[in-house]
Write a structure and sequence with these properties.
The chain is mainly beta. Helix content is 7%, strand content 43%. The chain has one helix and ten strands. The chain has one helix at 22-33, and strands at 41-49, 54-64, 70-76, 82-91, 94-99, 104-106, 111-114, 120-126, 135-142, 147-155. Strands 1, 2, 3, 4, 5, 6, 7, 8, 9 and 10 form a ten-stranded mixed sheet that branches. The chain is globular and about 40 Å long. Mean pLDDT is 81; it is low at 1-21 and 162-171.
């Protein structure tokens, strides 16, 4: 999103479009021309479950801003040496977590929700405690090799039956 700001001159100066210097007009035009387009993929409301060392998960909504399907194939975070894309599925009447084969597919101009009890970004071997309000950086890698960076905010969440501890679920 580009924002064009225009201001008034100081006391004793006048400013009109017609009297703008050619250099100022060229600078404005160049700034408008080089404004960055929206990123191909964004994540809205990213958050990470608070907790101690061990396991935790990150959530939010992946939004595809393009006319092509996008696939998130991996993720990294300095908080964990092992980050996986996970899903929760019914396996013989029991809900289990497992790596999501093929990654998270985000449809054209659509979204893909990451939520407790569903698809999520799983962090294993977490190296520090996640406090409420903590800012945890992430990098997601798409199938085409491009990356998207975002920061998830630590949030207390008891959840339904989620307990991201070693030995819980199947990995």
């Amino acid at each position: 999103m580009a924002v064009l700001v225009s201001g008034c001159g100081g006391p004793g100066t006048t400013s009109t479009t017609a009297s703008a210097s050619p250099a100022a007009a060229a600078a404005t035009e160049a700034a408008t021309a080089t404004a960055a387009p929206s990123p191909a993929l964004t994540i809205t409301d990213p958050w990470i479950k608070t907790g101690g060392k061990g396991m935790t998960a990150a959530f939010g909504t992946l939004v595809n801003n393009t006319d092509a399907e996008l696939t998130v194939v991996s993720g990294t975070s300095p908080l964990s040496p092992m980050v996986e894309l996970h899903e929760v599925v019914d396996s013989g009447g029991k809900m289990v977590m497992r790596p999501k084969k093929g990654g998270f597919v985000v449809p054209v101009r659509g979204s893909h929700q990451l939520a407790p009890g569903g698809d999520h970004i799983m962090l294993m071997g977490v190296t520090g405690k996640v406090e409420p309000g903590a800012e945890v950086p992430f990098t997601l890698t798409l199938a085409d090799g491009s990356t998207v960076e975002f920061t998830a905010i630590g949030k207390d969440f008891a959840g339904g039956k989620e307990n991201y501890q070693p030995g819980e679920g199947k990995h």
